Amino acid sequence: xxxxxxALVLLVAACSAPPATVPPVDEPSSIVSYLDDxxxxxxxxxxxxxxxxxxxxxxxxxxxxxxNWGALPxxxxxxxxxxTAQPATVEVAQMRALALPSQRTEAELLALGREAFRSYPSxxxxxxxxxxxRNDAASRYGLFDGDGQLGGFVxxxxxxGTTSAAVTCSTCHSTTDGGRWIAGRANxxxxxxxxxxxxVGGGPDLWGPGRLDVTGDGVDNPTAITDLRxxxxxxxxxxxxxxxxxLVKLAIRIETLLITNLNESVxxxxxxxxxxxLYLRSLSESLVEPTHEGDGARVFAxxxxxxxxxxxxxxPPVAFERVKTDANILVNSxxxxxxxxxxxxxxxxxxxxxxxxxxxxxxxxxxxxxxxxSGHLFGTTLGADERAALLxxxxxxx
Amino acid sequence: MRNRIGSTLLxxxxxxLAACGGALQxxxxxxxxxxxxxxxxxxxxxxxxxxxxxxxxxxRSDWVPNISDPGPxxxxxxHAECTQGKNGRCSGNVHDGWRCxxxxxxxxxxxxxxxxxxxxxxxxxxxxxxxxxxxKLDAECGTQYCSPTLGMCGDYAKTVGYYCHTPKDECVxxxxxxRVDGGxxxxxxxxxxxxxxxxxxxxxxxQCEG
Lengths: 398, 210
Hints:
The complex is a heterodimer of chains A (about 400) and B (about 210). Chain A has helices spanning about 5-15, 30-35, 40-50, 55-65, 105-120, 130, 135-140, 170, 190-200, 245-260, 270-280, 295-305, 320-325, 325-330, 365, 385-395; strands at about 80-85, 125, 145, 150-155, 165, 175, 180-185, 210, 225, 235, 245, 315-320, 340. By secondary structure, chain A is α+β, with helices and mostly antiparallel strands. In chain A, the strands form five sheets. In chain A, strands 1, 2, 3, 4 and 5 form a five-stranded antiparallel β-sheet that branches. A two-stranded antiparallel sheet of chain A has the order 6-7. A two-stranded antiparallel sheet of chain A has the order 8-9.
């Protein structure tokens, strides 16, 4: 809330008969600053970028100003979740824009983020209009049934009165397990490559399930969809440790991601970006705390804890030469920093695609003796007993 | 992700002269004068637009696939295997793999309300029905033109649909976008595309998710 509004409220309150009450300001100051202070946002953006010279950073340094991206119209269109039962039915009458909280307390923003995760159109997906109505859409494109919502998709109302499918955060970053919807966990079955190809007559499967090429660097370098549940623990964001992480920096990361996903023609309400940041950080509560007892924990401490440290099981970036995997993503991409993010292993037992490229479908495959794939060889030379102990420990990290 | 190969010198020149922040219809720097729409003398003719419906010739590349084994994913090895549709070809490359693809159409009449795009197949040259757009021909756009556009994923796919240009357009051709964000991001080559969120054409550098 701006100082001017606060002053006005206080003034009105002081002149009223009942005792003055201070408006609810139970939000951390950083949340208010992010929402209301452009100079603060700019400083935080600059502080978040590890390598100001890579393409990702240059774009944001050039555009994240009030005159550029800040001047874009705010996009909060009427939308409705695509119903698993009737994906071809667009319930225009039920379309609603997200209700932005008036007080902007942390609790309100968190609730907004929870809703936005499944309902805010993070990218228009006209390519999905034909795919979603296929009888085999769920199996062909790896779409989950999230409590009646097909693959996390929504239909949105456009300015010209037409409607279109759009993805939400949950399309890529959630899945189901035994019928239970799990927010934040990567959808390792999602076939965006196939869906986009089918919209223009079909074509080869370029990226494979659970992978997206997120860079415009002229190279086909799809990366596995990230497990967002441990994002609170991460010191850095993105595979190449491109962005430093805290609540505000994550909100800015989300805001700029949405702007580029939305073709830089509109921007999300900042309450949505902050709400999503709060919500994503809350997902860590679903992950079990690691134990430090037992044979597996001891092997882990010896073999892995140099990088995957403490209870967060992450740490500062490491040099690419230490892991030597996925150079196209970590070194040659427009997001490179010279370092590699150390992913938190909290929740690793539930991940289906491991390493940046998703080279391994299981922990067993990743730590298999004499595996053919190079890179991240830690733990692959252990004896049978220690390997089993380590795998048992990693599989306890749900 | 791969990017669209660059524009011509003419287009770059047009891009330098044509402001991208406003409607080009009223832009005094607009270069070309319409030759076909007499009631709209200041509308610039897009480099690509659809004056009339075309019937695809059905001629496909006779290039013979050279598929190694072991190699990339291959669901076919010869054209002769592709018998499940019209004009089948086994096509692909060592990067994308190999698969049969077929012509879906020869003319718009086979594609409902959208265009039959000759040679528009995804990383192939088969003729396909597009699945989006708000026009098939210039005649449907009043004083404006009906042009092909890339979609949300840029040149990851080819043309995804045809849309009418509008008075609010911020660009007409890719060349208008050459200086917008140009060089800001590695490999980024902005293009002029229809944006349904704002219902007009504007420069974009989007490449799927990110």
